[in-house]
Prior knowledge:
This protein is an alpha+beta fold and 527 residues long. The chain contains 18 helices and 15 strands. The strands form 5 sheets. Strands 2-1-4-5 form a 4-stranded mixed beta sheet, with no helix packed on it. A hairpin with a 2-residue loop joins strand 9 and strand 10. Helix 11 packs antiparallel against helix 12, helix 11 packs parallel to helix 13 and helix 12 crosses helix 17. The protein is globular. The relative contact order is 0.09.
Amino acid sequence: MRQVTELNAGRKTAGIDGKLALGSRDKAELADRLQRSTAPWCARPVKRVYIPKSNGKLRPLGIPTIADRAQQNRVRNALEPQWEARFEPRSYGFRPGRGCHDAIEAVFVVARGKNAKRLWVLDLDLRAAFDHIDHEFLLSQLCGFPAKGMVRKWLKAGVVEQGSYSPTEEGTPQGGGISPLLLNVALHGMEAAAGVRHHLSGTKAGEVRAGSPALVRYADDALVLCHSKEQAEQVKLALAEWLESRGLAFNEDKTRIVRLEQGCDFLGFTIRRFNGKLLIKPSAEAIRRIRRRLRDTVRSLYGANAAAVVRALVPIIRGWAAYQRTVVSSEVFAALDTYLWGLLFKWATRCHPHKPKRWVVKRYFGRFNKSRQDHWIFGDRRPGGQAATPEHSDVGPYVPKFSWTKIVRHIQVKGRASPDDPTLIQYWADRGRKQAPPVLSAERVRLLRQQQGRCAACGDLLLHADRQPQSLWQWEQWVTTVRMAIRRGWIIEGTSDQPDDRCLIHASCRSRTIRGPARPHTPTGLA
């Protein structure tokens, strides 16, 4: 319930019935319907919407009704642990505790070093994988699952586009909570089909055997690291036949075989060997996209005030930097800082065309971050509409720089480890402590640690997750959501006698607080 009504980015997007569950009464009615209804579940068709892709094309999404979304999450929670015990070790997309950085680290481990053997790469991309999964094959993989009939209803529910209904004979719509899991189920076994062989015991248990190709997959994108071009071609033929039985095929425009010296792009990174050394950097396309987004954002704010510019840019900068901070990104960060400074200076001079540049610099640039000896930080010197005075000089919200983000190497998840494995509770607890710190201010990090990451009002996890975001979009969404949840108006006083004692609470808990601050309490464990 909380996932689909409070956490998901699409919680305010209705299905074909036009219903949402944003208020407390609506959430209670939906929860009562899901828990107490004994009638067979009736799946509703999804609403077709389109979102732009990075290449300019449109990606079709299927938006289920809010009730179907909640029910799909319940079914996913039951089905996921069963398949987590079976999934292959180098499958990282749409799985708990795994993400893009694990996939990149897996590629680095296989291809690093001067004596690396797998120097040919088969760069795979599937053509519209979600839209062409064979229903019968997918359902045959769910044999014995109690909710198999419910999954069948969702697959066959159909699509409504501009008031016109059309049945679905294949595929699972992107937008449903269970669709990513079903894609992983359909693609399970790809490593074996590619001829990947692992050590089953000993100190090298889980590692790829010598002479065998190594496959790293993130959802429908995959890299196969091979010893020769001939081996890569053989793997491609074997996988094409294997995919055919699942109703899938390669996207020939994006699938190619290259040497690592030429390099390839994967998940927004460029993987390439330079003089026998493997370097992974932000891809040229990812850099072009972030530059374009920064430019469009700043230009759209011509005529706005400095505070609006800061609010718009902070999530973009922190989210992109947090996603790219695990690879060789220092030079890219510095170049982006220079580019962004030019955009902001142009914005400032355009806002005040009749003022000299010295006045513009004094008005918008200064040493806003006291921990850095940098007097060229863009910020708003008049927080809350106050007039600029000597005591308010260089005080106020500001735009952070990409280069302030430290490069932190990612620790790859171990083998087949899954958060659903009860024997690995200590492993996941230790892994959470070793992860890079969140992209927040030092004061907010201190409050998070002081509260052990839990909301002072309800006792639940404050950041809505037991792990960090796993993709570029999730990082940006995470930064935006957390900044909203802990903005100044939502940091309330605690119960301590100290007047400066503060605590952090959920945005949703704040909205439920009508009068007076919420008092911290120990979680009761009740749902």
